[in-house]
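Following up on my earlier thread - several people asked me to post the actual chain instead of describing it. Fair enough. Here it is, all 171 residues.
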Amino acid sequence: MSSGFDPSSPANCCSGPAGRCLPSAHPGCSGGTLFVRLLQPRRKEVKQPITTPRAPAAIGPYSQGVRANGFLFLSGQVALDPASGQLVAGDIRAQTEQVLKNLQAVLEAAGSSLTAVVKTTVFLGDLNDFAAMNEVYARFFPEAPPARATVEVARLPRDARVEIDVIALAG
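Reply from S.P.:
Thanks for posting it. Predicted structure:
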């Protein structure tokens, strides 16, 4: 079985930066060096779940967030109180504030913050709530706000009025 490497071939003499040049007594190599390609195994990407009691526990088979490949992927949060697990009372402003506090808690548990958020998706039960949601959202992202998509949906878990998910840089 051939490995594809022929030490007697002049093509394998030291000729460039992509690899290592090792001393060689091979007569075909000028300068007495042999080019060796080093094969590095691919780094195994690790997916690490993020959990914190400062945000509501997942209400299904998913993680509050996941760290992977230098990013944080946070599951959508609705306005659940972390202590009671109940939907907070109030209008869209109150719910948006609770959602963003929940997301902030998950980010902080991962060693990150809202300033590291690069993308959000906002799901609204009623697009007429857009302006009021934006008022609260802008307070949490006062400078360099992340990219965002906002969509109206037919229904949200627990009949919430807003759900937001996040992609952020890992801290």
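The chain has two domains: 9-40, 48-169. That should answer part of your original question.
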